Amino acid sequence: MKNTIRLEELALLGLSIWLFSDLPYAWWWYPLLLLSPDISMIAYTLGNKTGAIVYNIFHHRGLAVLLLLSGFLLQNTALQFAGTLLFGHISIDRMLGYGLKYYKGFKFTHLGLIGDR
Fold first, then answer.
1. For residue 1, what is the DSSP state?
2. Are 20 and 33 in contact, with CB atoms under 8 Å apart?
3. For residue 116, what is the DSSP state?
4. What DSSP assignment string belongs to 21-70?
5. CA–CA distance, 91 with 12 (Å, rounded to integer)
6. pLDDT bracket for residue 16 (50, 70, 90)
7. Cβ-defined contacts of 74-83 (< 8 Å, 24+)
């Protein structure tokens, strides 16, 4: 099952890259900003519960889709880029086993314990 999830996420990463390729931005913006959603980990300095809530908001695929669709509807390429970037980042995280966080701590995710792969 783990390999199936990884392959599925790899396909979603490919979709993200394909969507980005249609945007009017230089290619290097994508890899440069790909890890930027991880800034949300700073919220863990306020405790596990706050950290998990903030991290999960910034790593929820629904937010990525909302940004992307809003960008399409509003014809706003910045929103499209943000949604595409977040979508790709989430896919990479899921491939590596970094899921949405539980309140117990950073390494407790909906995909299992980080480092348990």
1. -
2. no
3. -
4. HTSSS-TTHHHHHTTGGGGGGGGGGG-HHHHHHHHHHHT-HHHHHHHHHH
5. 6
6. very high
7. 77/23, 77/24, 77/25, 80/19, 80/23, 81/20, 81/23, 81/25, 81/29
Residue 115, burial from CB neighbour count under 10 angstroms (0-12, 13-18, 19+): exposed
Say how far apart CA 55 and CA 39 lie, in whole Å: 9
Residues 6+ apart with CB under 8 A from 82: 67, 71
Cα distance between the two ends of the chain: 12
Q: What whole-number distance in Å separates Cα of residue 13 and Cα of residue 18?
A: 9
Q: What is the pLDDT of residues 63-88, one digit of tens each?
A: 999 999 999 999 999 999 999 999 99
116 falls in which pLDDT band (50, 70, 90)?
A: low
